[in-house]
Amino acid sequence: MKARTLSRHLKESVKSLGRNGWMTFASASAVTVTLILVGVFFVIMMNLNKVATTLEQEVEVRVHIDVAANKEDQKALEKKIQGISEVKSVRFSPKDEELDNLIESFGEEGEAYKLFEQDNPLNDVLVVKTKDPEDVMKVAEKIEKMEYAAKVKYGQGEVEKLFSFLNGARNVGLVLIVGLLFTAMFLISNTIKITIVSRRREIEIMRLVGATNGFIRWPFFLEGLWLGVLGSILPITLIAISYNYVYDYLAPKLQGNFMEILEFSPFVYQVSGLLLLMGALIGVWGSMMSVRKFLKI
Amino acid sequence: MIEMKDVFKKYPNGVVAANGIDVSIKAGEFVYVVGPSGAGKSTFIKMMYREEKPSSGTIMINGINLAKLKTSKVPLLRRNIGVVFQDFKLLPTLTVYENVAFALEVTEEQPKYIKKQVMETLDLVNLKHKARMLPTELSGGEQQRVSIARSIVNSPKVVIADEPTGNLDPETSWEIMNIFDEINTRGTTVLMATHNKEIVNKIKHRVIAIEGGRIVRDEQRGDYGYES
Description:
Chain A: It is a multi-pass membrane protein. Chain A is an alpha+beta fold. Chain A contains eight helices and four strands. Chain A is elongated. At the A-B interface, helix 1 and helix 6 of A face helix 2 and helix 3 of B.
């Protein structure tokens, strides 16, 4: 294609947005509504996932080593645990470290436990992380059967509840996103139906004077692109501003609860990029759908 | 120039609109296509610019067989054929100039050439002074002149008109006919479907009458032949 033709298509597509003022408004609005819904939802989903991941990462199996075990028994146990396929890492935490942690976790009152430094009653511990946090139950069971594993702890009961909640939330999210996508398709294809009627004459005339299908498609392609981009401005602004507020409000409250939400940067930029891309795709898709019908010779 | 042989056209709903048409039109001819409504005039015309494809038979225009023409080549055919309609088919959002220039823009001509060609053509149809107006600001006759200008701006060898005076009053119709005559005297073949008895009987040209999808009459300098 000649550069002159491309510039003609560009000019034509921009002019056409103005000429079809109300149609432009209607189509861009459809994109806007869709993107606001998708955007808000996406932000919630991603944050839920972030919280879930941080929580999951806290999940570990603590294996108390029997005091009767000597150094070699200990090494053997560690090796055995490492041999379980679901295990990601095993860290040895000597009983002195365990006591320090305990003292620290009690704060000032922990001072009292310093007395035990002479005669530490705690066990040495192997801290086991699994590749998939949901495997902790399975791994814990296996370790329990091993020799010199005195006690195996992974927050029994709590962990199961947490996982069932997170899985539920993710599934609900998935269902909602699929539903949302269907709504979006419906919304946009309806707007397009209206647009078709007003544009069929234009396409008909282009065909009559000998425009190739490619030539006819170009301005519509670009127009769809502009529509999508126009339609994504408001959702992006809205999400950026409100996320800023929500983050400032929520982040301090969540701190110390093992929970974290995604920081403004780069998350909001990523979401913005995604919305822009989706808007452009939706716009182009809608526009191309409407032209296609009239290009069959 | 135009050669139809044994052309049949049956629509999916069973209507037979062309039932064995044989006709030959030489370059530079002016031909009226007449006949009652639903006789197959429109199909006859539409097959000429490949809006409809014949079910069987051959249609040769300038040595190209339209029955076998690939869909992707249709735009190239259309650039050599100007088409004028009863309802003008102008784009209401474009000015007179832009509507005419449209036909040249699609062929990716030089801007300079487009400007020169459009202004010359608008001059031919006496609308140079209204180039910046919108079609809605023009009378019916003027709108039809714009549409004629668009059909001839790329100097096609054939101009096909489907009831070009159908929406116009008698006086304006004569103006339009004068323009078609002018185009014809410059060497362009003109094919015109019409219901206008006065025009056909007064401005004498070849008349092809179609009834029931067949050519029932073909006379040089013929009459309209029907009660209007």
